[in-house]
Amino acid sequence: MAGWLRLWPKPRHGKNLRYLALSWSGLQEDPLLLIAAHVPNLSYLSLNRVSGTETMVISEGSFPQLKALILKNMLNVNQLTVGKDALPNIEGLYIVALPKLNKFPEGFESLVSLRKLWLLSLHKDFKILWALSRMRQKMPQVVEVRVE
């Protein structure tokens, strides 16, 4: 889905949705908070240029079936947080071109099912902080990690 999205469609429309890719939606609010409650069976979510917000939150217990999450080209996002018991089945997490994200997202080390983690084109200090905080050692279950 590409284009302006003023608000999320009626709640019943997302219950059976498995795959969702949003681009250029024009949402000014956190899209993760807006859609999480409406798509409990989602297994793939890609958000590209969708957020005008500075903070994104994957709330507690949300996205129970999600296996892949892609967050791309969000120029204002400087903080990302994962709530307790969120993303219990996540296997791939791809965060690309969030130039203001300068620290490791809170809660990511608790994603025990995570196998692939890409952190690309983030804030210039991100890679240094990643190394200093020894995040790779805190996530031994992740098979593939790219931090560039």
List keywords for this structure.
148 residues; alpha/beta; Leucine-rich repeat, LRR (right-handed beta-alpha superhelix); two-stranded parallel ribbon; 3 helices; 8 strands; 25% strand; disordered N terminus
Fold and architecture overview:
InterPro entries: LRR_dom_sf. The protein is of the alpha/beta class. It contains three helices and eight strands, in the order E-H-E-E-E-E-E-E-H-H-E. Helix 1 (31-35) links the parallel strand 1 (19-23) and strand 2 (44-48). The protein is globular and about 45 Å long. 28% of the residues are buried.
| Largest β sheet strand count, sense and barrel closure | 6 strands, parallel
Residue ranges: pLDDT <50 for 5 or more in a row?
A: 1-5
The CA-CA distance between the termini, in Å, is 29 Å
Oligomer: single chain
Q: Give the strand content.
A: 25-35%
Q: Main sheet: which strands, in order across?
A: 1-2-4-6-7-8
Mean pLDDT: 88
